[in-house]
Design the sequence.
């Protein structure tokens, strides 16, 4: 991705006379980019924030092939970070997207300070950036019951082990509202059949229990009969020969992307529109709130740090607004 306009043009040369795209620019052996990513608690978080830092590095270098690794983050000053913020806004990025990148930038600069690559005053000034204020309507789509039923039917029509696994994954997605990375990280040892609960570790290394319906439990149990009771991931990869993949003496874990891919595969097979795993999450939250479940309980079930985040998924205000407009009557011509 090349830098747009004049906001970042020539910025790499402006940073203390060093070329940002030159890997030799970073003299110290310590790399704040690597230190920051290593501090994150999950592979999903590392992937997300790596992408943010790589996009920032590409903006600075004016070269989409550049990554953030080995770059002179410690040379950034307020005049550079403020121009970066302006450049991201000029690109048309949403406020939330810009703020996520600014959060990654602040954290990598903090690691540069921790590694004694950057003076405290320089670090504080470089991070003194106002968040972008913006509000957007919720994105994504709700998953209707007919689409889910069709996808589950496609799973049941597959006689192989992948059919049983995918049906269990879809049922777990729909009845727990878990993130795709949380589904991928579930372990058999954390599945309590008596309680119909699964213990997971979510964002911020926070543990919580999620619960499945009896119908979802039946699908999970059907899958575990195929999977066996050996240690390892609850949902594991399956190769083309139908064999379950292992890492050492344990069943291997899937990735979050693999969860998204199998969802797409089953929906396409069923002739349904595509949905993301997060569509299942927003549907779960919306259904609970529609049913009158307390906001705090819903927040706890989905692992949000703030009730304000959960409230953004509430579909009732939009419904009330639509009902209010329906009270109007357009005169006939």
Sequence:
């Amino acid at each position: 991705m090349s830098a747009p306009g004049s906001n970042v043009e020539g910025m790499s040369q402006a940073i203390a006379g060093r070329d940002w795209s030159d890997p030799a620019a970073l003299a110290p052996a310590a790399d704040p980019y690597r230190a920051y990513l290593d501090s994150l608690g999950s592979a999903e978080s590392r992937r997300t924030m790596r992408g943010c830092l790589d996009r920032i590095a590409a903006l600075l270098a004016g070269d989409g092939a550049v990554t953030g690794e080995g770059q002179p983050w410690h040379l950034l000053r307020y005049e550079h970070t403020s121009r970066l913020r302006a450049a991201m806004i000029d690109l048309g990025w949403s406020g939330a997207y810009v703020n996520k990148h600014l959060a990654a930038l602040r954290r990598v600069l903090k690691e540069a300070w921790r590694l004694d690559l950057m003076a405290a005053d320089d670090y504080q000034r470089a991070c003194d950036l106002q968040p972008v204020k913006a509000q957007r309507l919720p994105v994504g789509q709700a998953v209707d019951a007919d689409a889910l039923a069709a996808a589950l039917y496609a799973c049941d029509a597959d006689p192989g082990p992948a059919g049983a696994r995918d049906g269990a994954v879809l049922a777990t997605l729909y009845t727990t509202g878990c993130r795709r990375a949380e589904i991928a990280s579930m372990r058999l040892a954390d599945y309590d059949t008596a309680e119909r609960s699964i213990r997971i570790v979510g964002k911020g290394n926070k543990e919580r229990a999620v619960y499945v319906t009896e119908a979802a439990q039946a699908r999970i149990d059907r899958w575990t009969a195929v999977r066996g009771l050996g240690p390892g991931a609850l949902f594991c990869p399956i190769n083309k020969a139908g064999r379950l993949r292992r890492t050492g003496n344990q069943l291997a874990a899937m990735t979050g992307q693999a969860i998204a891919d199998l969802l797409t595969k089953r929906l396409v097979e069923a002739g349904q529109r595509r949905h993301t795993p997060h569509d299942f999450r927003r549907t779960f939250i919306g259904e609970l709130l529609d049913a009158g479940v307390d906001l705090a309980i819903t927040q706890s079930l989905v692992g949000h740090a703030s009730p304000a985040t959960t409230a953004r998924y509430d579909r009732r205000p939009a419904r009330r607004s639509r009902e209010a407009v329906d009270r109007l009557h357009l005169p006939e011509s």
Remarks:
- Residues 11-127 form one domain.
